[in-house]
Design a protein that fits this description.
Elements: H1 9-23, H2 30-37, H3 41-48, H4 51-75, H5 83-96, H6 101-105, H7 108-113, H8 121-145, H9 151-171, H10 176-191
Length: about 190
């Protein structure tokens, strides 16, 4: 009979998420993950199978704890007219806060998309799913904000808003001012509809 697990899985996954978010999958070493989680290699392997299993768990945690709660006001039954503007302002505040993970490292999934792991079919599907969720949320938000838009105008505004958000999340790691300018552009476009 195996030994009972003596650690909290959520705590371990969140500690690993910080490492993957900062370093990326490829650069995150097992010693980095051991230090961050407080677990030894055998415990990590027994619990998650391998480094990739831990990464997959961290991505799910990222989606469930970071991404989806922020999108929730845009995906619920009733979307407030200012929900999309509030989302953009909150994201802007997060990226403007020195030391926050988003300000320092942007978006985990956007970063992974440009890394070698982004070519993996499963990871590609997760990233594509993230974009689909983002676009659906922006569509609902823009529709609530500007209900008189035609279907084509709504599609274009939602695509523009989602694209500017992704650009901001990609730039946050290297040029905070450019990231904030992308979000300002998204807010400007919404203000003109």
């Amino acid at each position: 009979m195996g030994r009972a697990q003596s650690f909290d899985t959520d705590t371990v996954v969140r500690a690993a998420l910080g490492v993957f978010w900062e370093l990326g999958f490829e650069a995150a070493s097992l010693p980095d993950l051991e230090r961050a989680t407080g677990l030894n290699r055998s415990s990590l392997y027994n619990s998650f199978g391998n480094k990739r299993g831990l990464f997959d768990a961290a991505v799910e945690d990222y989606l469930d704890r970071v991404v989806r709660p922020r999108l929730a006001p845009l995906t619920g039954r009733d979307v407030a007219p200012e929900a999309v503007v509030d989302y953009l302002r909150q994201l802007r505040a997060s990226l403007a806060t020195p030391g926050s993970l988003p300000a320092r490292f942007g978006c985990l999934l956007v970063s992974v998309a440009g890394a070698p792991l982004g070519q993996d079919d499963v990871v590609r599907g997760v990233i594509s799913g993230y974009r689909t969720e983002m676009l659906a949320a922006m569509t609902r938000g823009v529709q609530a904000h500007a209900p008189d838009l035609s279907d084509e105008e709504l599609r274009q505004q939602a695509e523009t808003t989602a694209g500017l958000i992704i650009a901001a999340l990609a730039m946050a790691r290297v040029d905070r001012d450019a990231a904030l300018a992308s979000l300002d552009a998204a807010l400007w476009h919404l203000g003109n509809h």
